[in-house]
Structures are given as structure tokens and as C-alpha cells.
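Record 1 of the preview.
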Amino acid sequence: MPIRQLPAGTRAYTRRNGKFFLEIIGHPEYGTPFGQHRLGLLWLATEAVRTQSPVVRFESASQILTEWDLTTGGEYYRRLASSFRRVFGSTIFFGTQSERGRSEVWDCSRVHFIDSLSLWFQRDCDSEGRRRENLVTLSAPFWEELRNHPIPVDAAVVRALANNPGCLDLYTWLTWRCYQARGTERIPLFGPLARISHT
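->
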């Protein structure tokens, strides 16, 4: 996910590392998620793993803002609402592209994070005066990934890095690598075999 907002009129975010590529295409109206927009998605993933359900229920947006120690004011509510729209409306393409002899070989997937959502009903009540729930249903591939490869992130670290999405990405990635490691591993950060590319 981009760290900064893409230039006006740009909806495609692309990164390549050798034969591997990643592309995020944003919604034509809402745009491409960036920056702190990853916090809402991280909260959804955390709740889905905690409840062991791909359907995440919550009463209000303040739960998410409070979890990450963010201000529960109007600006942050609008930013969180925007993040859900952008994440929901984006499509991710990833895979490998390589050449074998005279052939070009693609091995790719197209995914999204959220199948459906019903949000911001905390101010409304049904005919019997009961408060409605906010509902977010994660996509099947995302839910399966969370079930099979949960990442045990430390909420205190996420709070500390909430305003630094680049460092938050690095922390999350290192946490995943360490959690998956079965022995000593060397991870090159720079150079031809690096996992981090600078553009």
C-alpha cells in the first residue's frame, strides 16, 4: 500500500522486485488507499483472528480509533471512513512475470480484502430502538490467509508507529518473517537481492 497519497488523477500503484510485481488499482471515485488507511485494515484483521470469524462486527468507529490511540474527532472519523471506502474499492494484482526462451510467463492473482460492508449505523436505531451493528465481511482469500498465517503484531508497537506507515510496514513484515522462521535467517534489505526497493 502506498505510504503517501498518489498524485491527482493516478489510481495505479505499482512495485516490482525482480520478477515479482504488485499493483494496486484504486476506485475511480474514492481513490487508492495510502498512509494510515492501513490501520483500519490491520484492525479488521486483528478482530477477525481474535473472533475466528471473517465477519467483523463493531458498534462504532471510535473502537478502531481508540485501539490505535488516535483522536476520536471529526477529522479522524472522516479519514477512517475514507480508508474503508478506498480499501473496499481497490483491487490488488500480484505475481511473477518472467521470460523463458521466447515465451513470457505470467503467474498472477487478483484479490481484494473486503467482500461487503455496512458501516456507520451507530447513530441509527431500528424500529424497536436498538442500535445497529457495523458489519464488514472479509474476502475468502484474505480470511484464509489470516487463518493460516496470522501475524502476532504488538498493539503497543502499532500505536507507536501509527503516524509512520513506512516503519509500520517494516515492523509488520519483520514480525511475519520472524514468526515464520524455523532457524537463523539472513534478510538482505539493500542490494540486488533486497526485499526493499527504493524508487
